[in-house]
Amino acid sequence: MRVLTTALDLTSETARHNRAAMLERLAELHEQQGLARDGGGGAAVDRHRSRGKLLARERIELLLDADAPFLELSTVAAWGTEYPVGASVVTGIGVVSGIECILIAHDPTVRGGASNPYTWKKVLRATQIARENRLPVVNLVESAGGDLRHQAELFVPAGRLFHDLSALSAAGVPTIALVFGNSTAGGAYVPGMCDYTVMVAGGAKVFLGGPPLVKMATGEEADDESLGGGEMHARTSGLADYLAADEHECIAIGREILQHLNWRKPGGPTSPPDEPVYDPEDLLAVISADIRVPFDPREVLGRVVDGSRFEEYKPLYGPALVTGWAAVHGFPIGVIANHHGILFNREAKKGTEFIQLCNQSDTPLLFLQNTTGFMVGTQYEQDGIIKDGAKMINAVTNSTVPHLTINMAASYGAGNYGMSGRSYDPRMLFSWPGSKTAVMGPEQLAGVMSIVARQSAAAAGRAFDEAEDARRRDELAARIESESLALYMSGRGHDDGIIDPRDTRTVLGIALSACYSAEVRGSRAFGVFRM
């Protein structure tokens, strides 16, 4: 493979402007992530510590292997909603006793760790990643259960967690519950449905109904310990497999359980990893501050892939889509990246062929999104853009190698689908801070609605109010703009997190390694391609 060259001039006004704009967006992201790390705030954290308890992220840190990375997922879930940023739960991928695992830790400083609708979006996404990639799941449990004020939004998705834990166990994927505190009502089924359960003596409280509910339902007077304490479950009910003296011992037992699983990955790197030739720091200057200004994805690849090496496929055909082979941390990947945004007929056919080739060679696919969608217009419709776009979407749908997707900038319309957007089940999808996702750009959408309104008025013989139309256009464009932002989309669970572009190589390395916990095998069968 040849080493990519670079045309980036870090001293140019454009590069300096791009860098400043990205740093501003990153500062906003870090501020919101800080709110999630703060949990329920100072008073709640102090109260939790006064009980001799560790915070959720402290438990995770102790569980992880020394110096092991932790890829936290959906860090700003629930942003822009009535619920706390982070959705009162921490999820992510980390290495415990040499095994890559999904970790799920409710934050008891936020309303006692009670779940809200976004908590369940985040938790169920984590179990989906575990299922698709065969990653053992460790639940670090301390939760008051569902926030009953929102029970109508919680009841159905909460049941899905029980389903997923049962399905993982049946598939031979280990599940572990480390119970530090409350695990009440429906939450009591988490330790009940995990393969292994460890409880902290004097801390764990696991019951379907706490003393108040038992009193209301049966008239019985009961205390926490006899009803659901760790000692009782270890000696009497048998729900606890191990009883720990304190939180540190609970975590140590969890590590020992994983160590004894004899868990093996079926695949791994195929070449020695080496760092890119070009500094990932430069990515801040590569990404256009104005989403309407395209940038060359080869400049991104040169700062992400091993040795900045890239074997480009069909470089002279359909040049608005860049395709080719590379490696990240020794893992082979096929790359599909947008260059000038629009997907034309040739780009769609080129992308389709390349997806098939990667499936033939069992090579995971990396999609780098920066697309305004498939081209429209009389000539392109007559040339069969619908058929060609359908081919690419068909190939994405039926491809069975792992897909990893990065939304670098724009991800609009059916281009989002053809580039393996969230509805096409990539194994993991991450966004850069300035990226946007929508049906189309806000100005275009508002303009389309204006044209439709104008035509409707003409057909009905009504006068058209230009001033009112301008007001509606501005209002609609502003709303669509706000709803397409990375924070908005990530807050609603439409990606697996917003990442610093400089961390892209590390994030992809962790994600690819996780994918190889399951067998990587491509499809040899696709749907009917309209020729």
Give a structural overview.
The chain is an alpha/beta fold and 531 residues long. It is 42% helix and 18% strand. The protein has 20 helices and 17 strands. The chain has helices spanning 13-37, 42-50, 56-63, 117-133, 151-170, 189-193, 211-218, 224-228, 230-237, 247-259, 283-286, 297-301, 345-360, 378-382, 385-398, 413-418, 442-460, 466-484, 486-491, 504-515, and strands at 70-73, 89-96, 99-106, 137-143, 175-184, 196-200, 205-207, 242-244, 311-313, 321-328, 331-338, 342-343, 365-371, 373-374, 403-412, 428-431, 436-438. Strands 1, 2, 3, 4, 5, 6, 7 and 8 form an eight-stranded mixed sheet that branches. Strands 9, 10, 11, 13, 15, 16 and 17 form a seven-stranded mixed sheet that branches. A two-stranded parallel sheet has the order 12-14. Helix 4 (117-133) packs parallel to helix 5 (151-170) and helix 13 runs parallel beside helix 15 (385-398).
